[in-house]
């Protein structure tokens, strides 16, 4: 059985990142290149919000996984209307269809 501290850690890791945290994360990734000796510590510090090195590494792995999924997808994630004005297969009739794979949890 998992200890309560492990459960709390897992819940914290699963919490959604705010838009501001994602922006700071992206800026920190651009600032601290892969070769930087303290990259993950600096990224975690830049993101703030109590995010740990493990949190930002996990978030980065999720980002890379999402990018790979998008790059290998055979079907588009969005249902853009065709230029001819006709309806496409899977057209949602104008409903908002945000890419769920780019939302970080």
From TrEMBL:
GO cellular component, one term: nucleus
InterPro entries: RADIALIS-like (IPR044636), SANT/Myb (IPR001005)
Pfam family membership, one: Myb_DNA-binding_2
UniProt subcellular location: Nucleus
SMART domains: SANT
Keywords on record: Nucleus, Transcription, Transcription regulation
Domain Myb-like: residue ranges: 9-64
Transmembrane spans: none
Keyword Protein biosynthesis: no
Protein name: MYB protein
Protein's organism: Zingiber officinale (Ginger)
Lineage: Eukaryota, Viridiplantae, Streptophyta, Embryophyta, Tracheophyta
């Amino acid at each position: 059985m998992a200890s309560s501290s492990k459960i709390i850690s897992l819940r914290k890791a699963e919490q959604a990142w705010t838009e501001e945290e994602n922006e700071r994360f992206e800026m920190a990734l651009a600032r601290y290149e892969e070769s930087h000796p303290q990259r993950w510590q600096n990224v975690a510090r830049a993101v703030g919000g109590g995010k740990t090195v493990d949190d930002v590494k996990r978030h980065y792995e999720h980002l890379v996984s999402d990018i790979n999924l998008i790059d290998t997808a055979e079907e588009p994630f969005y249902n853009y209307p065709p230029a001819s004005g006709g309806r496409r297969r899977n057209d949602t009739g104008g409903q908002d269809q945000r890419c769920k794979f780019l939302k970080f949890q």
